[in-house]
Design brief:
Length: 329
């Protein structure tokens, strides 16, 4: 999960300022035309009802015995911590435990997805499963985020707040789970189908998952981090999907968000992967515009043209043989 860092985690402004010295974000007119696709898929989202905010229920409680991340007590958005998360043997085992729990929670949440269930009901189930396992739901209270999971439906790119809206037949939904267990965060997300989903949406989800898998496959000690963005962008281009730039992967471990910033698009950024390092890769692809628009809640980010967006995410550990997926069931 990558929350925004103005009022929470990585924000568009902070992310931009962090990389603007090295990377130009200006697209040519031809590229914009490519990413703002004009095809038969356009009718899929132009006739669909736009996502509207529902009612948000009160914040859920966490038992006193459960360890909470420092930002919950400070009530201040911590920003991105400097320095990578590189672990000793004990730290690796802790990361495996938090990643395993996050994967199990996400898998369970996915079984709940069906027409008629509200995203608030999904949040309740996720919250309960996390605390029942002695962990803290990392999003809860992060820079004021009011819920224990992010639920991003249809045109919502990321950071959707669970509310009273019921899922509808034909929707797609990304569920983004992060748990804080024994002082370590495990972070993962996946996009699910709600009932009978059209072929355009299914293909977007399929390609987004492929982008993540391909990016993980090239990871190993000494590999340049910018290879991740090239791998994702190349595959998205083959299918004429746009890659959202403003939201990124990140180091994760004892800190929710740390260096390195992992860009999902082509870039000239520097930095190499390090043995025993942990970070997330979490590409967000769109059928139409890659440009985000934020709701008044200062969290929910949607595509500016209302086109569908999909996302997948894993926490990985860099090993001597490549990369171990810590959030894989």
């Amino acid at each position: 999960m990558l929350l925004q860092f103005i009022g929470s985690s990585v924000s568009t402004q902070v992310c931009r300022s962090h990389v603007s010295m090295e990377i130009s974000r200006t697209f040519s007119g031809i590229t914009n035309l490519l990413f703002n696709r004009r095809s038969s898929e356009e009718s899929t989202y132009s006739t669909r009802k736009c996502l509207k905010p529902g009612k948000v229920s009160p914040r859920r409680s966490v038992p006193d015995h459960i360890q909470t991340p420092p930002y919950v007590r400070s009530k201040k958005p911590p920003g991105i911590a400097s320095g990578p998360e590189v672990h000793d043997e004990k730290g690796i085992e802790c990361m495996r435990a938090s990643g395993r729990l996050a994967a199990q929670v996400l898998q369970y949440a996915g079984t709940l997805v069906k027409p008629g269930i509200t995203t608030d009901e999904i949040d309740l189930a996720v919250h309960q499963m996390i605390i029942d396992n002695g962990a803290y739901p990392s999003p809860l209270g992060y820079g004021g985020f009011p819920k224990s999971v992010c639920t991003s439906v249809n045109e919502c790119i990321c950071h959707g707040i669970p509310d009273s809206r019921a899922l509808e037949d034909g929707d797609i939904i990304n569920i983004d789970v992060t748990v804080y267990l024994n002082g370590y965060h495990g972070d993962t997300s996946a996009t699910y189908f709600v009932g009978d989903v059209d072929e355009g949406a299914r293909n977007l989800v399929k390609v987004t998952k492929e982008c993540l898998d391909k990016a993980i496959s090239i990871c190993a000690p000494g590999v340049e981090l910018n290879k991740i963005g090239k791998t994702i962008h190349d595959h998205a281009d083959k299918h004429r999907y746009g890659v959202v730039e403003q939201f990124v992967g990140h180091g994760v471990g004892q800190v929710f968000h740390s260096d390195p910033i992992v860009l999902h698009y082509r870039n000239n950024g520097r930095g190499k992967m390090v043995l025993n390092q942990t970070f997330t890769i979490e590409p967000m692809l769109t059928i139409g515009s890659i440009h985000p628009k934020m709701w008044n809640d200062n969290w929910t980010v949607v595509t500016e043209d209302g086109s569908l967006s999909a996302q997948f995410e894993h926490t990985i550990l860099i090993t001597t043989d490549g990369a171990e997926i810590l959030t894989k069931c």
